[in-house]
Design brief:
Length: 303
């Protein structure tokens, strides 16, 4: 009987640790120029998941030697007060990157808040100026999860150039910017990209055509082995909590891909957790260092 193949695991923890290690050298070089990279992280309210993400971001800043500016505002904070804070952070020369943790309470417009952040400090890459520049193939801040997917592919030796990449999901924070990023005429991109969504007909036929399949839908274990081509590279962006009576917490995390079955068919696959997730923080730190370097270069240009 033939032995069942198992996919290579693309280890996001290991790759993100290597990226953060490389960043330490860039941070030391900036500090030697008298520039301490700084990230302001703004949290509104007490969403437990947001608190966990914010804590991890602040801790990573400290580990790397990035100045972390914390702004925790109550749930009752008005939109006006938040916009005023962003205005102050935009003008603060110690702050190179501003991150406002989403989601915001319902009475605050996320669009208004994201648009208030200076595009030069928009390390999350959500400002329409950065989104437009990405589409145009111009220098910009790329949002962290798409940038993390690209870095995972490149650091694992799977250059998307010339490959058919199928992305399932078209959100503004993952699917759309990822498609824009991988279709660019640029090193690390040059892919032929297809984007699927909830109105796509015969989705399995399309996903089976993918050399690189990226699931970003938020549907637990939606992608089954019959949707994947033999030898495909599979990135799983999904993070879903499902009931599991065998766990002390009563739940466990799964991705959008049915990992056990698909990993017997794919050539390489990201696990959940430990795949795309850790890359998002690594890319946030990368963008913050880039913002600090750009600010220092602008200042030198003016001197
Ligand atoms: P989202 O805004 O809810 O978008 C989901 C997308 O999937 C939509 O475009 C939707 O199509 C599509 N979709 C949903 N059901 C579908 C189906 N049955 N068939 C085909 N397409 C379907 O989600 P998101 O914010 O992009 O996040 C997606 C997942 O990634 C979530 O699990 C989220 O937690 C995770 N995530 C992880 C990270 C990380 O760092 N690892 C970062 C961000 C997000 P329509 O547009 O037609 O509705």
């Amino acid at each position: 009987m033939s032995k069942k193949r198992s996919a290579k695991i693309i280890d996001g923890k290991k790759i993100s640790a290597a990226i953060l290690q490389d960043l330490k050298e860039d941070i030391a070089a900036l500090r030697a120029r008298g520039v301490a990279p700084g990230l302001a992280v703004v949290l509104v309210g007490a969403n437990p998941a947001s608190e966990v993400y914010v804590k991890a971001k602040r801790r990573t800043c400290i580990d790397l030697g990035i100045e972390s500016f914390s702004h925790d505002l109550p749930e009752s904070c008005t939109e006006k007060r938040l916009l005023k804070l962003i205005e102050k952070l935009n003008e603060d020369p110690r702050v190179h990157g501003i991150l406002v943790q989403m989601p915001l309470p319902e009475h605050i417009s996320e669009k208004k808040v994201l648009e208030a952040i200076s595009p030069d400090k928009d390390v999350d890459g959500f400002h329409p100026v950065n989104v437009g520049r990405l589409l145009n193939g111009e220098e910009c801040f790329v949002s962290c999860t798409p940038a993390g997917c690209q870095a995972l592919l490149l650091r694992s030796g799977y250059d998307p150039a010339g490959k058919h990449v199928v992305i399932v999901g078209r959100s503004n924070i993952v699917g759309k910017p990822l498609a824009a990023l991988l279709m660019q005429k640029a090193n690390g991109a040059n892919a032929t990209v297809t984007v699927c969504h909830s109105h796509t007909r015969n989705i399995s036929k399309i996903t089976r055509e993918a050399d690189i399949l990226i699931a970003a839908m938020g549907r637990p274990e939606f992608v089954k082995p019959n949707m994947v081509r033999e030898g495909a590279i599979v990135l799983d962006v999904g993070v879903n909590r499902i009931p599991d009576a065998t766990k002390k917490s009563g739940t466990r995390l799964v991705g959008d891909v049915a990992f056990a079955g698909v990993s017997r068919k794919a050539r390489a696959i990201t696990p959940v957790p430990g795949g795309v997730g850790p890359m998002t923080i690594a890319m946030l730190m990368t963008n913050t260092v880039k913002a600090a370097r750009r600010a220092a270069d602008r200042k030198r240009g003016r001197a």
